[in-house]
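Render this sequence as a predicted structure.
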Amino acid sequence: MTAPTPPFRDPRLPFAKRVDDLMSRLTLDEKTAFLHQFAPAVDRLGIAAFRTGQEALHGVAWMGPATVFPQAVGLGATWNEDLVRRVGEAVSREARAMRARDERVGLNVWSPTVNLLRHPLWGRNEEGYSEDPKLTSAIATAYTRGLRGDDPAYWRTAPVLKHWLAHNNETARDTSSSSVRPRVLHEYDLRAFRETVEAGAVAGVMPAYNLVNGRPNHLSPHLGRHLRTWTEEDLLVCSDAGAPSNLVDSEHYFDTHEEATAAALRAGVDSFTDHGTDSSKIVARVQGALAQGLLTEADVDAAVRRQLSVRFRLGEFDPEHDPYAKESHFDTPEHRALAREAAEQAVVLLKNDGVLPLAPGTRVAVVGLLADECKLDWYSGTLIHRSTPLEGLYERFGADRVSFAEGVDRVRLRTADGTFLHVLPSDDVPDGARGAEGALDPALLAGRTDLPPLTTDATGTELALIDWGEGVLTLRAPDGRYLSVAEDGYVRASADQPGGWVVQETFRLEPHENGHLLRHTGTGRPVQVAADGVKVAADDADAEVFGLAVAERGEDAVRRVASAADVVVVIAGNDPHINGRETEDRTTLRLPGQQERLLRAARAANPATVLALVSAYPYAVDAGTLPAVLWTAHGGQAAGTALARVLAGDVSPAGRLPQTWYADDADLPDLLDYDVIGGRQTYLYFEGTPLFPFGHGLSYASFGYADLAAEVGDQTVSVSFTVTNTGEVAADEVAQLYVRAEAPAVPRPRRELLAHRRFTLAPGASTRVAFEVPLSALAFWDVAHGQWRLEPGPYALLVGASSEDVRLSTTLTLDGEPAAPRPVGERGLEAADFDEQSGTQIVDRTKTAGDAVTPAAGGTGQLLYRSCDFGTGVTRTTLSVAGTGTVEMALDGGAWTPALSPSAPSAGPYDYTELDGAFTAGGVHDLRIRLRGSLRLAHVGFSG
């Protein structure tokens, strides 16, 4: 007899019932093993092994050749949800096709990144979409819908949003804490996640490495309090790599890994990414936690159930019913065309005095360190096709009309005995790029040791020296290979590009005696010349002292070609692996010095100089002396062709800035200041003059806006207006709708994006643009009552082509909920629910939930709570505190009460005591509280 089909194999049953059945068949040990990223097979049930996690930020990454689309920040610059949805669809199709031939390719994709681009010096700026939560959620929703697919039951891939929560710094990223007040939490950081999850195409989230309000994100109470309330789908929470161990090893939040693992699991983490493919440590920690009573089997079941829910949705148990099982679309003509379209739409024209588009027959000089580069980042796939700006302009204008100077310094390195570093010829320099074979963890890819190390001879080899800023250099041999250091310590010309988790292709020239030490940044060790070849030395005592013989300065080469051209195009920007990347924040908005010198040389030789910035983040450049400036993120495989077509006018640029471009480093807040409201950050609150504002982008056409109409309904505001192409070429426009509260009782944004739309218009054509905006989008988080509130009063609706280029406006007066004073006489005050603060930071009240406030760095801080209603009167106050220090209170602008302090230091930061003191108040007043020392204030109560 044939054994009956178990219910979990029955496609006629709902997924939830099938998960229930499968759960009932798994042993506790089998379920525990599922908690690691690499879940093993259960052969007795015919269940295959499963891996959470496949990077797919702008194409399938790490697993070999794939279509490479523009970086995420470039996709954000398109402001085009339809385009981004199609990109997500192409990426997920390629993931399916690649998995069919390589089981290492996963379908639980860890993309997109929805961290808001609050600070432009963040090293991972390239991974996010925008500084604005509304634009971020719109683009992220489009991408996840493409990744998910359209089938109502089965998912093409299962997207996981990164990185939960308030994560914008690489500096001390696993130990720093983001102090996030409730208004910033709800109005800014949670919002991008919430709107994307509510759209219904998200399978889960990944917590970030950092802490928020003193508590590691892998223990975030917001996973249960907020995230899992936004959808009826089971959401899979996957830890970031190594983060579970960080809870003990670097954060010292727990004493044992059993405690830490149990706490993370109970907080809502379902899959632990730790120790690579070795699951034994995580399994042992969970088993230890179970044995110690820190976990129950029900805790394990909850996590495993959520993982299985995703696996069922991916069709793993129904291959005959999975509509995506036979997906074969890979590197198709349609995907190539889409990569070019995305790269074209990502180009932002920042300034144009009429030099663009380039006229037919123009003699173009293309110069700059990125002119003949198609750079990849850490989350890129391996290029199948490649297009550099130089190649694109050759193709568009003809090689006879295009001249080129890279602008590198050409040097030889002279040793103390008068010989020079020499690159030996090699018959084996393959065309394959690093990682072309694919790797589950590219950080483990090793450098080449099969090529000969450098040596010395009487003439040496001329090397291309590029200074990427802050003294970080790369050196390239004439055959195009970069000098690199492999595990054996020898220096070889072996790398096709700088790259890797620890970049082995960068050096520093440090002044020393009458020359320089050549220090390898990856190892921190200087280079020496040994009998068996050039290698890194054990210490400085063995280092070689080099002289620098310059054969040609880059500026000289740039001047030569620039002076003979009609127009110069300077291609400047960054290498995504150097000075600004995951693990490393930038230190300045300025271009590296070498690139600024090249730009000045080109401009001096030819006033018709166009600056094209190709970068993962904004720069502060002197745009006033340039006739035209463009920006694009690293645009993937079609980047060069796309840029050339925009320069030539084949495509009218219509990208828009997804974040503010500040004019100077002095405009920036501290990297670790996450209070966008109090710190007046992003276009929402920034009061200075930006270099280029949020939403900015020019066109080769011109557009007129007219006939604004706005009407308030029961739950929405209807806004419509007409846009006309008044130019001479067909072009895209991005119409943007903003709002500003005109008489707010609390600080509100200067203007806030409500809606946008990108569309194409022929010359003379018009279109009516209409938006339905929910009134809830105009609300703010009322800390006095812990809820959203639409404030009554006038609101300005602003329509235009950027946040500052407003063409139409009108004012509506809305009915809302009037402000009510804080009922502190009845409920007291949660310390973190302040209206304003200075000199404080929010910390964890306990290890599981709640916030407290403490002075920053043990100093003095103040808190302000407006409109506190003490009712008919109070005479006493009770403060819940921990630590040491003092608390003082004052009404309105009055005198401070006598300081209260604990009689003895608390045993620990979570051991709270009650301070009781006299405090007389009645009616409604503003309350000020002053904290000194290392005291943590959690709650203030009133009585009497």
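Summary. The mean pLDDT is 97. Residues 25 and 45 are 8 Å apart (CA to CA).
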